[in-house]
Amino acid sequence: MATNLLNRGAFIVLEGLDRSGKTTLAYLLVKELEQRQIPVEFMRFPDRSKDNVIGDTLNKYLSSGIELNPETSHMLFTTQRFAVKDQMLQKLMEGKVLIVDRYAHSGIAYSVAKGLSLEWCKAKESGLLRPDIVLYLDLLPSEGLKRGNYGEERFETVQFQEKVHNAYDQLLDDSWKILSAHDTPETLVRSALSNILRACELNAHKPVELLYQSGRLDEKSPLKERQPFRTNVLSSQ
Prior knowledge:
By secondary structure, this protein is an alpha/beta fold.
């Protein structure tokens, strides 16, 4: 599939514990990019819309309305991501920046916290689009407890969030930028925006890569698989 790679959009993911401020920061970043007349689109996972079966099921599950075993819940979350993979790629090829609130990394971290194998979880996400950068809002689990509406969702307990925090540590690679969730919104936006603009510049002419895969697709394809991730972390500070 031949595709013009000039000025593709950057794929940006926001990750972090519950109540770390991801969604608020995502909305602020979209506003900043729009003011700079940079094409941008916001997405979030999971999609909890009640007008589709998976979304409605996940909404009930996260609200503790139904029970699902860890494997089933993981596959439902993953299915949503794969369902819009081609749509996301198209948006990037149109030159849009994608700001995504939670992605495969959340799916893996939360499932590992439930007791599933890290390698099993990663294998289920293999082949998704790989973000150009992951902005991780670092928050101590005990601090999340102090934020508004904590405890309304299934996994909002300090004990479980500690497990998620530890699982995230196992996913850090060279695409991650660590931001302090304790910073002011203004500081977070300034730091995140700097990383996003840099990612736009660095990746404008590069193929989109695939997550947790090795090798290479046809050179004409906008998709390029990557080697397994490394463990050195680049901080935004």
